[in-house]
Each structure stands twice: as structure tokens, then as C-alpha cells.
């Protein structure tokens, strides 16, 4: 793959977030979950959970282990079908849609366990995400029509801009499995952004990070929001969650127990009680 480095910050911003209102103010609800319920046999993993995600905000989704956070992501992204309730994006239902239709509707996610194509280079991993948006037919690709060549060029330019944006452009041509762990996490974010989502869901993106890497990640998440994306963040590290989110929804045993700004969440008796007895420092609310 021939690689062109974007030249300026403005060029990178335009390639990363085309046709996007940069720095949108927190606004009307983008995604609404109403009475969302997911059951596994006799276990109710998510129990009539209702909250919204507002356009332009960074919303934290927290709770002790097993509270239902990942189940909530999975129900939103088409992995699980809820047994009750609705999920809408800009008023349209996401329930029952296939995963690729949900991606097209504008929801992208990363996973707790990194899922990259290990043999592919970092750039190729991102270009795979970009290709989902292209319109070239198979004959177009085989005969290398002008449209195919143009789209391929655009993919590489935008892929490089995304790698630049997450800070790993220097590793564009390295196989993803050879990248340091922190780079792989950033690459996952770049690949999710490649689908041009309205909502980016990050599932424990700081897992395994040292304090310096966590600081850098906070900066990246803020930058992602500044570029006009809405972010839903599951994260156990309370310093990170409190430092980067606008609002936090707290789950316990599948139920929503709080929904407020970070400073209020820290003092909420129900939230403090939910975390009492949790030994891992990272899980403490304070
Ligand atoms: N596929 C599944 N089949 C059966 N039970 C499941 C499944 N996925 C999750 N659960 C159960 O649902 C509950 C909620 O799990 P979930 O993974 O959503 O919690 P979580 O808040 O993301 O936890 P953690 O912080 O540990 O990742 C748990 O009791 C879990 O064991």
C-alpha cells in the first residue's frame, strides 16, 4: 500500500471528521434506551434500564463487575436481542437490526478484548473499516475502474489521518499483532472511527494502561469529542471516568441506580454503597 502522510493538522482534522460539525455542543438525545431488558435464562442481566446519550457528550457507564455494562453495549450494537424495551438512534429503532446495519446507522465500538486482524498492518486494519462505506462493485475492484482507484486513494489518505489522529501513524506499515499493547488499543479506536460513527462506544479502553497512558487516553477521548463524535465509555478506572465524562450512568445488578454529573455521582449514597467492599482500588468511587 502506498502511503501519503497528511500534511497539516487541518488536513488531518478534515480527513478524520469529514462533513462534521466540529466541537458540537451537548444537545438533544442521539440515542435513547427505554426500559431495556436482557435475560439469559433465569438471569436478568439488564433490568428495565432507561437513559439517553446526548449528542456531543461523553457519557460514562459504570458499575461493579457483572452490573450489566457490557450487556448494555451488546444490546445496543446488535449482539444481543433485548427481551423487552427499545433502543433508538435519532428516533429510529436499532433493535433487531444486524450488526452491519447498526454500524451503518452510526454506532461503532471497541471491545474489552482487542479484536484486530493480527497479520494485517495497522493501516490495513483501518482501511477495512473504511471499505464498509464504499460503493465500488466487485467488477470495479477487479478491473480497477477510476472510481475504485479514487476510493482506494481516499481510503489510504483517511486511514493515515486516523492513525495520525490516534498517535500511531509511525506504525502504519507494521503488522498489528507486533504493535505494543497501547498502540493496539489506539488502533482499535481508529478502526472504529473509520466507520464514521455518530456514537463511539469504548469498552474499557484503559484496561492494562499505566498512569501516563491513561492520561494520554483521556486527552484522545476529549479530542474525539471535540471532533464532533459522541462517546459512551465503560471504564473501571474512576479517575479516568471522573476526569473525562460529562455525565455518568451507574448500573448495579442490571438496574440503573444513578444518572448524574461526575461530582454528584461521587457523593451519591446508592453509588457509594454499590462500591463498598470492592477491594480493587480501581473500582473505588472516590
Ligand atoms: N452471554 C451470556 N450468557 C449468560 N450470562 C451472561 C452473558 N453475558 C453476560 N452474562 C451475565 O450477565 C451479567 C452482566 O454481565 P456484564 O458482562 O454485562 O457485566 P459488566 O458490568 O460488563 O461486568 P464487568 O465489569 O465484569 O465486565 C453477569 O452476571 C454475567 O455473568
Automatic annotation (TrEMBL):
Q: ABC transporter domain: which residues?
A: 31-278
- Organism domain of life: Bacteria
Query: What's the name of the protein?
Result: ABC transporter ATP-binding protein
Q: Which organism is it from?
A: Flexivirga alba
User: What InterPro entries does the record point to?
Assistant: AAA+_ATPase, ABC_AA/LPS_Transport, ABC_transporter-like_ATP-bd, BCA_ABC_TP_C, P-loop_NTPase
The protein's matches in SMART domains, at most eight in alphabetical order, are given as: AAA
Q: Which keywords does this chain's UniProt record carry?
A: ATP-binding, Nucleotide-binding, Transport
CDD domains on file: ABC_Mj1267_LivG_branched
Which GO molecular function annotations are given, in alphabetical order?
ATP binding
Q: Where are the transmembrane segments?
A: none
Instruction: Write down the PROSITE patterns for this protein, in alphabetical order.
Output: ABC_TRANSPORTER_2
Amino acid at each position: 500500500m502506498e502511503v501519503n502522510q497528511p500534511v497539516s493538522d487541518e488536513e488531518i482534522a478534515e480527513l478524520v471528521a469529514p462533513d462534521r460539525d466540529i466541537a458540537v455542543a451537548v444537545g438533544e438525545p442521539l440515542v435513547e434506551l427505554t426500559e431495556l431488558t436482557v435475560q439469559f435464562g433465569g438471569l436478568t442481566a439488564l433490568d428495565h434500564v432507561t437513559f439517553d446519550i446526548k449528542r456531543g457528550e461523553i457519557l460514562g457507564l459504570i458499575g461493579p463487575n457483572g452490573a450489566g455494562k457490557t450487556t448494555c453495549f451488546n444490546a445496543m450494537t446488535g449482539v444481543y436481542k433485548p427481551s423487552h424495551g427499545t433502543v433508538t438512534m435519532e428516533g429510529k429503532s436499532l433493535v433487531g437490526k444486524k450488526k452491519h446495519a447498526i454500524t451503518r446507522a452510526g454506532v461503532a465500538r471497541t471491545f474489552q478484548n482487542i479484536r484486530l486482524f493480527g497479520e494485517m498492518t495497522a493501516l490495513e486494519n483501518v482501511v477495512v473499516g473504511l471499505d464498509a462505506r464504499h460503493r465500488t462493485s466487485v467488477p470495479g475492484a477487479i478491473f480497477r475502474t477510476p472510481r475504485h482507484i479514487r476510493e482506494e486513494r481516499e481510503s489510504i489518505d483517511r486511514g493515515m489521518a486516523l492513525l495520525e489522529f490516534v498517535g500511531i501513524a509511525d506504525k502504519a506499515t507494521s503488522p498489528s499483532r507486533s504493535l505494543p499493547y497501547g498502540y493496539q488499543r489506539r488502533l482499535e479506536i481508529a478502526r472504529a472511527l473509520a466507520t464514521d460513527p455518530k456514537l463511539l462506544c469504548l469498552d474499557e479502553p484503559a484496561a492494562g494502561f499505566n498512569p501516563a497512558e491513561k492520561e494520554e487516553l483521556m486527552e484522545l477521548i476529549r479530542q474525539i469529542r471535540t471532533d464532533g463524535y459522541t462517546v459512551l465509555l465503560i471504564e473501571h478506572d474512576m479517575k479516568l471516568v471522573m476526569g473525562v465524562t460529562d455525565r455518568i450512568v451507574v448500573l448495579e445488578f442490571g438496574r440503573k441506580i444513578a444518572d448524574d454529573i461526575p461530582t454528584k455521582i461521587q457523593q451519591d449514597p446508592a453509588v457509594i454503597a454499590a462500591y463498598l467492599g470492592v477491594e480493587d482500588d480501581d473500582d473505588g468511587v472516590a
